[in-house]
């Protein structure tokens, strides 16, 4: 009997020691490296005019003062927080992308041209015994998409209180579709478009340009996979399908992070027969429609890679779920340029990029234009954090508006490769999950982060504003809700914790002044009459 008791005691002690060693100690170590959820937030209506920083110093040993414990909407409470109500300097004309008169004249010319071309298409179709539905165009100078375009400025695509964004989301969900066509970049790859309207052609997956009755325009990406489907373990990231729900979730995350660099995106059910087939003026698009054995209406695209009948999308029998992304102003009126991402992934099965093999790569990048001055490198870090949270490894290029020069913000476009991994990240690592962490670590090797970005990330780990909770609430307003699974939402919290631990290690190694940078520093290539620094 005594021997049995001794054996039981030894077993329990062994299990306790193993639990401490393998579970408790790693958690304590991770907690030690995690920056404390802090910043002495005593701002009431802060301004970043003087030097581009708030009046609140960031520290690692003080806690946020919780100013509200009220029940109710966490999302509304988040947007009322002082960090989301920092005033910007009054915009001058050169800091606005477009002027109203210029935009209105441009759009009126486009509408006139559309009316002429539509008449030609309808007459040509009638001669071939093809019926095309004729929806009248209602051009309204107060249309939500026009107000969205007018609101684009040097700092973001829209302001925090821009009501036109919510109106635009509703319009993309409900407005009558009057025309459907292949996107310009798909046509560019086939040499069949005005390529001056294309920044960088990409034609890997099916997407369509839909014109709405108020002459607004949205890019439609159809549903290909169910919410819970992950990238198979043996797939490389560049051979997987894009996800329509990732586009929707990316817009909401971008707004929650207060970046405002993703154009508005909404979910919608499209009738592929009535809202694409019967109204398209493109004979090639009309030719790729067919009925499946299950009597569903299907279609595919003609592009370079997976646009074959084997990769067709189908309605049920006609309704097809997808994302609607608002178009930015045309390149002829608002030029953009595409720039290779210094930390892009290799797009081959065997190749490796320089950042993967050169330990000095980051130091070298920081010495090169345009990363050696101004805000560009800090914006790259913002983009890296955004992509890590969404799980997007496909950021091979980024775009900027040429009008704003080196100090303009980066556009976070084309986010359909996100949300491909769920529980595997920071759990048992697959190759793809490991690459996500490597990408973040390499991009953060510059050991810099914007002060405002860090403040908001630290705020979003607090229970009052937890990232998964505010994202769940924000996404619940979309017609395709639930846009993400609960596993996706919980993964966001885990990834956010990993970002903050990475920043915490940088702070511990170099100190706050070297890591946490005020929001905006003028590029050394920009000359102005004043030395005033403006925030971004």
From TrEMBL:
Keywords: ATP-binding, Disulfide bond, Glycoprotein, Golgi apparatus, Manganese, Membrane, Metal-binding, Nucleotide-binding, Transmembrane, Transmembrane helix. Its cofactor is Mn(2+). The keyword Acetylation does not apply. Residues 289-515 form the FAM20 C-terminal domain. The keyword Kinase does not apply. The chain crosses the membrane at residues 419-441. Pfam families: Fam20C. One of its GO terms (molecular function) is metal ion binding. Mn(2+) binds at residue 414. It is found in: Golgi apparatus. Its main location: Golgi. GO terms for cellular component: Golgi apparatus. ATP binds at residues 221, 325-328, 399, 414. GO terms for biological process: enamel mineralization. The active site is at 394. Belongs to the FAM20 family. This is Pseudokinase FAM20A-like. The gene is fam20a.
């Amino acid at each position: 009997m005594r021997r049995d008791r001794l054996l039981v005691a030894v077993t329990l002690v062994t299990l306790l020691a193993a639990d401490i060693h393998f579970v408790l100690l790693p958690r304590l170590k991770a907690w030690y490296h995690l920056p404390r959820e802090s910043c002495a937030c005593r701002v009431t209506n802060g301004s970043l005019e003087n030097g581009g920083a708030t009046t609140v110093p960031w520290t690692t040993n003080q806690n946020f003062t919780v100013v509200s414990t009220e029940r109710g909407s966490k999302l509304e409470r988040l947007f009322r927080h002082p960090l989301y109500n920092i005033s910007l300097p009054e915009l001058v004309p050169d800091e606005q992308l477009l002027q109203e008169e210029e935009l209105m004249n441009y759009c009126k010319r486009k509408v006139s041209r559309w009316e002429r071309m539509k008449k030609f298409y309808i007459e040509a179709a009638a001669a071939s015994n093809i019926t095309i539905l004729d929806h009248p165009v209602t051009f309204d100078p107060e249309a939500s998409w026009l107000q969205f375009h007018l609101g684009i400025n040097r700092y973001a695509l829209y302001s925090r209180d821009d009501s036109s964004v919510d109106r635009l989301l509703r319009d993309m969900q409900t407005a009558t579709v009057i025309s459907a066509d292949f996107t310009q970049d798909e046509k560019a790859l086939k040499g069949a478009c005005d390529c001056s309207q294309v920044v960088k052609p990409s034609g890997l997956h099916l997407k369509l340009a839909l014109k709405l009755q108020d002459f607004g325009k949205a890019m439609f990406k159809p549903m290909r996979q169910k919410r819970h489907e992950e990238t198979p373990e043996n797939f490389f990231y560049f051979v997987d399908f894009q996800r329509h729900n990732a586009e929707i979730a990316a817009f909401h995350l971008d707004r929650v992070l207060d970046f405002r660099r993703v154009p508005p995106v909404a979910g919608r059910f499209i009738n592929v027969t009535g809202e694409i087939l019967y109204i398209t003026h493109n004979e090639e698009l009309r030719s790729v429609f067919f009925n499946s054995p299950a009597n569903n209406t299907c279609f595919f695209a003609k592009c370079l890679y997976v646009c074959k009948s084997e990769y067709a999308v189908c309605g049920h029998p006609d309704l097809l779920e997808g994302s609607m992304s608002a178009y930015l102003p045309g390149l002829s009126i608002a030029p953009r340029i595409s720039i290779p991402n210094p930390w892009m992934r290799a797009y081959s099965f065997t190749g490796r990029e320089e950042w993967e093999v050169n330990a000095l790569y980051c130091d070298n990048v920081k010495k090169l234009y345009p990363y050696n001055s101004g805000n560009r490198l800090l914006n790259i870090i913002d983009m890296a954090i955004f992509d890590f949270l969404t799980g997007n490894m496909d950021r091979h290029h980024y775009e900027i508006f040429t009008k704003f020069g080196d100090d303009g913000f980066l556009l976070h476009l084309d986010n359909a490769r996100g949300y491909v991994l769920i529980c595997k990240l920071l759990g048992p690592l697959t190759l793809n999950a490991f690459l996500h962490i490597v990408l973040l670590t390499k991009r953060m090797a510059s050991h810099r982060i914007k002060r405002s970005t860090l403040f908001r990330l630290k705020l979003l780990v607090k229970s009052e504003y937890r990232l998964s909770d505010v994202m769940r609430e924000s996404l619940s307003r979309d017609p395709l809700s639930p846009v993400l699974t609960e596993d996706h939402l919980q993964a966001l919290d885990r990834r956010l914790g990993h970002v903050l631990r990475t920043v915490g290690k940088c702070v511990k190694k170099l100190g706050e002044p070297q890591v946490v940078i005020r929001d905006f520093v003028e590029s050394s290539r920009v000359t102005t009459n004043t030395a005033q620094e403006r925030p971004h």
